[in-house]
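SAMPLE LOG
Freezer: B-3
Tube label: C17
Construct: single chain, 121 aa
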Amino acid sequence: MSYQPPFTITTDILNLVAQISQQVGELNASQLNASPQLRKQNRIKTIAGTLAIEGNSLSLEKITAIVEGKHVLGEPKEIAEVHGAIAAYEKLSEWNANSEDDFLAAHGLLMGEILSDAGKF
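STRUCTURE (predicted):
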């Protein structure tokens, strides 16, 4: 037994659903644009969390300072990892996840200050 809804889906209904979806998307986008400080904090936390998984011991405060262009004391390799992560996150929206060239470009940015062969197989 299949369920038959008490209405018929028409072109008008589909158009209204599409308009509602578009307006909800615009509302969500406007809320994101309203808080650049929140986006910055989330990016810093994302970078810190990603690097912590890889064993980077820099604190959230030091990573924040690096994002803000300040100098911090720390292991050069760990500071270079932060620079690479910042650069990669800035380009993330430009890359195609299925592109080998973009994969190598991401690796080059992430590890460019650390490995002499970054961005290559």
